[in-house]
Design brief:
heterodimer; A: about 240 residues; alpha+beta; Immunoglobulin-like; five-stranded mixed sheet; three-stranded antiparallel sheet; 7 helices; 8 strands; about 20% strand; extended; B: about 180 residues; mainly alpha; Rna Polymerase Sigma Factor, Chain: A; Arc Repressor Mutant, subunit A; about 75% helix; elongated
Chain lengths: ~240, ~180
């Protein structure tokens, strides 16, 4: 049996550090530029990145059609499910009381748009309590719009945001929403703001002085990483 | 600009800031990947993919936390997966004595040869360790990471890093004694 006490732990550690200093590493490749190019390409790509790649025989539209057919068949063939769904969507007092409790609080001038939309939806559907309930509990994605959506570099524009909340059906207003102006791989941070109690915001901003004439995007990024954007045209 | 600010800007979608962050860490990331894969093109691919994954995961990065160990965790996982799918062990080598970074101590040529042989043997013995022990030794002594950083990078407790290093050194000591006797 070998006598391993000839080497102390310190000697081994010292030798290991010595090896570390002499290790033959290949030259570090410049991955920084490649990584940025890939990320910018991804950002510019009109199609969202697909996490799941579909094999050709399972093209999304055919899968969607097949899934819809299966659902229709199941509902049509199952009397119990049929009855349950009919009850669920039929107008009635129960749906009305649910709608009242789940309704999102709305007040203030900037909520006129929401009220108008809710009113229109309700009228179109005959103003049933069930419809109101469905509209109140639906989960809207945040959205922004720029007014005007075409302006020269350095010019002012108004950015309005809606439905910036932390969750569906009465979440808290989003905080630290980052507003970016992006064009051809360049990014300008315009501001960071908080949504008001109506989950909305309005901000007077300027088109970055360095922006070139042509298409650009204004992007709003929530702390959760969720983002929404609006097309913008930089004029000469 | 300091790392925390760059990370915050990158988190907000600023790819230029992220490029600077990548440039700051690409050398250590590539070396970490190379220590796992032992293959330069594989390590480059792993590093690149890890940086892209890290960008997408920036929302999960705790602002103000050190970026390097968080990044190295992603790099290590990516490199490990690639090495496993390639089904091979890392084979590392040392620079020729003339190219070494270490200033040689004034010893006789014979002693220098013996020392070089010992280093080669020791490195070969490191290659024989289990993956967990080998990574602890590689990151602690070859990359020069602290115990804390090594623990974060490998996703284990600091005590685990200590015990793995201790076990690994005991094995290396035995292996070196065997080589001496042979």
């Amino acid at each position: 049996m070998p006598d391993d006490r000839r080497f102390s732990d310190e000697e081994i550690e010292h030798s290991l550090r010595d090896i570390g200093a002499r290790m033959e590493y290949p030259t570090t490749p410049d991955v920084a530029s490649t990584v940025r190019r890939k990320l910018d390409e991804e950002e510019r790509s009109p199609e969202p990145r697909r996490i799941l790649r579909w094999p050709p025989f399972l093209a999304p539209r055919w899968t969607a059609v097949a899934a819809a057919l299966v659902v229709i068949c199941v509902v049509a063939l199952s009397p119990t499910l049929h009855t349950t769904l009919s009850d669920l969507f039929a107008p009635g007092p129960r749906a009305g009381s649910d709608a009242g409790s789940a309704a999102r609080p709305e007040s203030g001038a900037s909520e006129a748009r929401h009220k108008q939309e809710a009113g229109t939806a309700s009228q179109a559907a005959g103003g049933t309590a069930a419809d109101q309930g469905e509209a109140a509990t639906s989960c809207s994605s945040p959205s922004i719009d720029a007014v005007p959506a075409r302006a020269a570099a350095g010019a002012k524009f108004l950015l309005r945001g809606h439905d910036f909340s932390s969750g569906c059906g009465g979440g808290t207003p989003s905080r630290d929403v980052t507003i970016l102006f992006r064009q051809d791989g360049r990014t300008w941070k315009l501001t960071t703001l908080d949504a008001d109690r109506n989950m909305a915001f309005e901000a007077g901003l300027r088109v970055p002085a360095g922006a070139e004439p042509g298409p650009a995007r204004v992007q709003a990024i929530l702390r959760s990483g969720e983002r929404t954007e609006e097309r913008f045209i930089v004029l000469r | 600009m300091e790392e925390t600010k760059l990370a915050a800007r990158a988190r907000a979608g600023d790819t230029a800031a992220y490029e600077r962050l990548v440039r700051m860490h690409q050398a250590v990331a590539f070396r970490a990947a190379y220590l796992v894969t032992g293959d330069a093109p594989e390590a480059e691919d792993a590093t690149q993919e890890a940086f892209i994954k890290a960008y997408r995961a920036l929302d999960r990065f705790r602002p103000g936390a050190p970026f390097r160990p968080w990044l190295l965790t992603i790099v290590t996982n990516e490199a490990r997966n690639r090495r496993r799918s390639a089904g091979r062990r890392a084979k590392l080598s040392l620079q020729a004595a003339a190219e070494g970074h270490v200033v040689p101590a004034p010893v006789s040529p014979e002693a220098a040869v013996v020392a070089a042989e010992r280093r080669e043997e020791l490195l070969a013995s490191v290659g024989e360790l289990s993956e967990g022990e080998r990574l602890v030794i590689s990151y602690r002594y070859f990359l020069g990471l602290s115990e804390e950083e090594t623990a974060t990078t490998l996703g284990c407790a600091r005590g685990t890093v200590k015990s793995r290093a201790s076990r690994a050194i005991a094995r290396l000591r035995k292996a070196m004694a065997r080589e001496e006797d042979a």
